[in-house]
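Look over what follows to help learners.
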Amino acid sequence: MSTTAALGVDPDAAAPRAQAENSRGRVVVASLIGTSIEFYDFYAYATAAVLVFPALFFPNAQDPTTQLLSSFAVFGVAFVARPLGSILFGHFGDRVGRKTTLVASLLTMGVATVLIGLIPPAATPGWTVLAPAALVLCRFTQGLGLGGEWSGAALLATENAPAGKRAVWGTFPQLGAPIGFILANTVFIALSTFSSPEAFASWGWRVPFLASSVLVIIGLWVRLKLIETPAFRKVQEADAVVAVPLAAVVRTSWTKLISGTFIMLATYVLFYLMTTFTLTFGTASTRPETGPAGLGYERVEFLWMLIIGVVFFGMTTLASGPLAERFGRRKHLIVVTIAIAAFGALFVPLFAGGAVGVQTLLIVGFCLMGLTFGPMAAVLPELFAANVRYTGSAIAYNVSSILGAAVAPFIAVWLWSKGGGSPVLVGVYLSVMAVITLVALALEKETQHIDYNGHLAD
């Protein structure tokens, strides 16, 4: 990527000025609230996709496995929409600004989530086809909003960060993942505990989706108080806003789009295996009438095990920022990705180790998740110049979501079925994806010391 220094000033001079306008506390809350809502919404859907959506929206499927795969297929629709959202919101993020675009993406995502909670089941007269179609439409709209959400939150944090603190500040939006998970699943646990199975299937599952409106309102209130980031103000002052960011980023940084996509691949696969697949496998019957066998845990029991693992996810996300600053993004991620590849080989012995083994698997997996996910809010944006950064980082992040997350639950269930109820092939799948990410990291250069605010794409 060819770049030129903008304005001939100290590239970090804008950071202190930005802090006077956007305080650290405001940046933390504004970047964290959006990704918390993002992951709350997605965890709520992922949990419902396992627990109630197969029978609720796909009652005419020939068997429970087909119902589950149909539910996961709709789960993947949002990931297909995310690259389109990254182009749409990336365009405005690089032309209009980070703040306005973040407000629009949050509204899009939030409205779609609330509407999911209002869709009648397929058994409702006249809704046999309309119910699953409405679910698909809402998931697609969610995906559009999500396509612009993460990148904007990452830029909000890193473009306001002081010198030498981008990876640390970049962990602020990443913390939204464990927070959103805990919020969503705590709601599901409460509903499962204090309502009957019939009440949960009838109306209880709707509560997490409808309740997200409260988080959206808080997020909008915080974001409307923001000041534009210093990096984008420099783009405006240098009269370097590009007319078509997509064309510009493809022309100047197409290799970075490819490397960024595959750098994120193992993170996405690990993320959705540790959440969606483990819940599916953990709560499936040990002696099913149809489909592969699982571990037979009660739903609430396994959700608590997941929440314990996610606490470690949050702690290692925070730890990853200082580690990425000390050792460099590339070295840090190479070591963690090697560990992820090795972790795939532990699926069978840990899953077979009883409650202790399963909990150990969840803790180790989520620790690796935090260590790889935490630095990504700095790593992906650092690949791109300031005037195409929103579009570039959003496309890399969201194209990777198709390759790593949209298909991960579907592939995992299929491999689990082919393995005769054993997760051995699922572990192999994770290890192979980690090797692909290692190749991408080996081919990319360290980005820690780039002139983050002062370079523009030619």
